[in-house]
Structures are given as C-alpha cells and as structure tokens.
Design brief:
Length: about 230
C-alpha cells in the first residue's frame, strides 16, 4: 500500500538528517495521500540511518494504523490534527533543530527581521501558548496539535507554513513532505539570523511594505520570482 509515497516519506525524513535538522531520532516527517487521506510517517525511535521504505507506517485520516509492523512516530497524533484542520497541506515536519527550538523554549515568536524571513513567512512566526498540566497529562500529542490550530485561529496557515510550540520545538508544513522539509530548513535559518540580529542590538521588524514586496513577489497571483 502506498509504496511510492513510502519512498517519498523516507527521503523526506532522510533529508532532515542531510540538512542537519535532527540528532539521533529527534524529529519526523509525514505526507498525506490526497486521494485516500492516508498518512505515511516514520516509525517511532528508529535511527535515520537504519530506516528503509518497508519501515514506513501507514495511518488512516484518524490516525488508526493500517500498515506497518512498527509503531508510528510518537508525534503522529499531532500530524493527524494538523492534516484534519489544515485542509490544503500535504506534508508535515517536526524537528528539534537547535535555533528554532531555542525560540520555542524562550516562548517567543520570531519577528520578520529581514527579507530572507519575508520570502517564506508572511509576518511573525508565532509561538503557541504553553500547554496546561491537564492538556499534557490528558492527551499530549493531540493537544499539541490543537494548540497549534488554536494559534492559527486568525492566521493563514498557507502564508505562515510553520510554528514554534512553546517549550517544545518547531513544526512546519507544505504541499508535500519535501516542501515541509524545505520550510523546516528555512525556519531554522531565519531563527539563527533572528537571534544574531538581536545580539547585534536590533529588534525592529522590517517595514510592512518590504515584507509585502518580498513575500508577494514569490507567492500569489502576481508573483514573478523564478521561471514560469
């Protein structure tokens, strides 16, 4: 079942290692099949250099395991919540990359300090509120997804393809697993740049008109970046 999708998801997970976004088993990537709604995700706790296509786990849209001998990623329930609520995404990535995770641990959103940020994220990358003791003890992974969805109540997940989970780490998403990995790489880079910008004594985000120019020249109906 979904053999080609399993290969794509394996490669997305291995890309996290190639881009040095994960250490040991700290992260996961998944992708959703647009026809069935089935989700393919990596197994829990397996080192990346040992993973093969046959190890990928298939879930239905509600997170029930359909195929695979191994347990799915412990964050699978969070992925399921995101797919259920963010209808147009096809891939989800979670890492503990050091720079973005530092912002998550600080409980701070990441301001758009420059045009690199603006090319991908249309505004401040939000940090969620902290989960309550009850939310953590009750259904932690599901509630992690719910607090992300809550954070995007008044935000467009399409123009803001990532979030910092308070005290935890970043999640990103995209049209497929590869796109979600791409956004995970970018959120890590802009988190690093943002930290250094603040160390240099600057805390003013770029002007809205510059943010608009850089985001909209790459996204939307009037975009002109790249080739047609």
């Amino acid at each position: 079942m979904h053999e080609s999708l399993k290969e794509k998801v394996l490669e997305a997970n291995l890309d996290l290692l190639r881009h040095k976004l994960v250490i040991f088993t700290w992260g996961n990537a998944s992708e959703r099949d647009p026809e069935t709604g089935h989700i393919v995700i990596k197994p829990s706790g397996m080192p990346y250099n040992e993973m093969k296509t046959r190890h990928m786990v298939v879930l239905d849209a509600d997170g029930k395991q359909l195929e695979g001998d191994l347990n799915p990623s412990s964050d699978a329930a969070t992925h399921v919540v995101l797919y259920r609520n963010f209808k147009n995404i096809g891939g989800v990535v979670h890492t503990h990359s050091e720079w973005a995770t530092s912002w998550s641990q600080s409980g701070r959103s990441l301001p758009p300090y420059g045009t690199t940020h603006a090319d991908y994220f249309y505004g401040e990358i939000p940090c969620t509120r902290a989960l309550t003791k009850e939310e953590i003890e009750d259904d932690y992974e599901v509630n992690t997804g719910k607090v992300i969805v809550e954070t995007f109540r008044d935000l467009d997940y399409g123009s803001m393809p990532g979030v910092l989970v308070h005290g935890h780490a970043p999640f990103t998403w995209g049209k497929d697993g590869r796109d979600a990995v791409h956004n995970a790489v970018v959120i890590e880079e802009v988190a690093k740049m943002g930290f250094r910008t603040e160390v240099l004594g600057h805390r003013d985000p770029i002007e809205q008109f510059l943010l608009d120019k850089h985001y909209l020249r790459k996204h939307g109906k009037n975009s002109y970046y790249g080739q047609k």
